[in-house]
Specification:
alpha+beta; 3 helices; 3 strands; elongated
């Protein structure tokens, strides 16, 4: 549901004026329920700013719960098929 990305402004600033002093990192918060949209937005911003590496944290609790439920089913099926106690 939340995607937080730290954009290194110093890199962008140095591309336009190498004499600028160090700038702090800019933290951007994007809130959406669409994981694909979040990825597309982060990718577009990185491409626009010509950045190759971003420190990004995502949190999609509903998707993670669905994944956990699927993995539990897979584990239970494995246990039954392989007679794991």
């Amino acid at each position: 549901m939340t995607c937080i990305t730290a954009l290194p402004l110093i890199q962008v600033a140095l591309q336009t004026n190498p004499m600028l002093p160090s700038l702090p990192l800019l933290q951007v918060s994007l809130q959406t329920n669409d994981m694909d949209l979040a990825g597309d937005v982060v990718q577009a911003v990185a491409t626009f700013l010509n950045l190759e590496d971003l420190n990004t944290t995502i949190d999609f609790p509903e998707e993670m719960e669905r994944l956990r439920a699927v993995l539990v089913k897979v584990w239970l099926t494995f246990c039954v098929l392989h007679r794991v106690p």
